Amino acid sequence: MSRHTPLWKTPIDRRALFGLAGAGAGALALSSCGMQTTDEGDGEGGSSAIRAAFDRPILDLNPFGSANVEQATLLAAALIFDSLVTRTDDGFEPRLAAEWEQPDENTWVFTLADVTYHDDQPVTAEDVKACIENIAAGSTPQAALWNALDAVEATDETTVTITTTSPVGTMLSNLSLISIVPADKVEDASFFATSPVGSGPFEVESFTASDHLNLTAVEDYWNGAAASSRLEIPYIPENSTRLTALKTGEVDVTWSIPPDQLAELEEPGVEVVTGPSFVNYFNWFNSSREPFTDVRVRRAMWMAIDVEQVVSDLFGDSAELATAPIPSPVFGYSAQDPYPYDPDQARELLAEAGLADGFSTHVMWAQGVAPQARPLAESFASYWNEIGVTVELQELEQAQWLDRLLALDWDMELQNAGNATGDADYTLGRLYSTEANRMGYSNPELDEILTGARSTTDQDQRAELYAQACKIIWDDAVGIFPLDPLATYGVREGIEGLEPAPNNQPDFVPVHRSA
Fold first, then answer.
1. What are the CA-CA distances from residue 279 to residues 257, 282, 434, 465, 496 (Å)?
2. pTM of the model
């Protein structure tokens, strides 16, 4: 039996999650984005609301809806609701669960803390049971995480027992995604429409979908009140508008800043803050199509590119060279030796594969998803041309791109993506197994490793298995992994307490204005 009994009064970080990277288009006038503020005194922090502009719209406040792994929804959920546990840099810490234990590998028992919702009603085991069952039985992306769920039982008012049909190594990361609400509200769409009640550090003051979310700090929040009394999150999709608002002081914080626009913030009164993220870029090869069925061709394509130079030219200090098929903050990350830039060796590999004269192919990507996608594709194509490979560039509307992606109707595919749970299983198990068949790649040895990592709760063993998986995917050159973009934030002078979040969902509880 294993038990986790953490110290309750230890300050802890918010959830570490992530969804697919992307950006909106168009601009909204600041006056329509909840920008009006009042200078009311804060109990412990600054003298007015913290205004944080996101580039993605909050479509609704329902953590059980179809958008429940989208960044904007998760951001709102982390502020209004609480989960049983949260991921930190060192593992997991409690939220609503005061402690948990594992009587056996298929059973988890959680004891709830004495916590109430914003309306003073207690958080109960029945609430937790209803929320988990709703997610597991639903059709949202989170449902797939619960395939091994057998039962959820409210043993008493403060004890929840979860049983599974097989060991689930990702149990805690799965639970970190689930917001807890009253059992009778889980399926009540009207409850989430404008002002849902949660147990999180903020409660809703006003909300208009795709426009703004204004929040008020809960003074008696069980884990300590937020440092500022109000938080305003306007949706400003146009990057130039957001950056102008930051520079003029109309907003205090903004993030998801494109690398080619960071230089605009190099002026007095604004600081650029960066940190690792759960996002990575990859150029997949369709391993079911000639000539990419041959690993020598895939390796040749990688070795033909001076990846370090390309990343430096296009991303500067806003990205790190990738050293694994998952970003460094993700559990299970294991650094690999970089592929050298060696065009002569690349030509030799092509010749060994019977392609001494080169070949023609294409690479596709979706419009508006990955910053710098076109210049990245153009740079790659230029290098490939030097070894005799002619590449057609195909920038597609997102719906068309997705249709072709899922149908494996492509040669190469360039994109970026995020990890929603901070666990390697979400990326490696979901994308690189034979069953997933995302890029026509199949490796029985890798399948066995991924299955083993998913079905053991021994985290040290899981880390070792994912290290093996990273090496196989890297050595097989399933794709080219050029870079991991940093989480980039623009912060006004005088704003304190903000830490970059790898999941793109910063914790605003400690954020405040300096005295």
1. 14, 10, 23, 21, 25
2. 0.87
Domains of the chain from N-terminus onward = 2-272+488-513 (3.40.190.10), 279-485 (3.10.105.10)
Q: What is the pLDDT of residues 403-419, one digit of tens each?
A: 999 999 999 999 999 99
Residues 110, 113, 117, 119, Cα dihedral to 10°: 140
Is residue 142 classed as helix, strand or coil in its secondary structure?
A: helix
Contacts of 100 (CB under 8 A, 6+ apart): 3, 4, 84, 85, 108, 109, 110, 111
What tokens appear for 147 in the block? 């395939």
Could you report the per-residue pLDDT of 364-394, keeping only the tens digit for each? 999 988 999 999 999 999 999 999 999 999 9
Question: Would strands 2-4 and 97-104 be described as parallel, antiparallel, or unpaired?
Answer: antiparallel
Q: Tokens 């021994």 appear where?
A: 458
494/515 Cα distance (integer angstroms): 8
Q: What residue type is assigned to position 267 of the chain?
A: E
Q: How far apart are the first and last CA of the chain?
A: 49
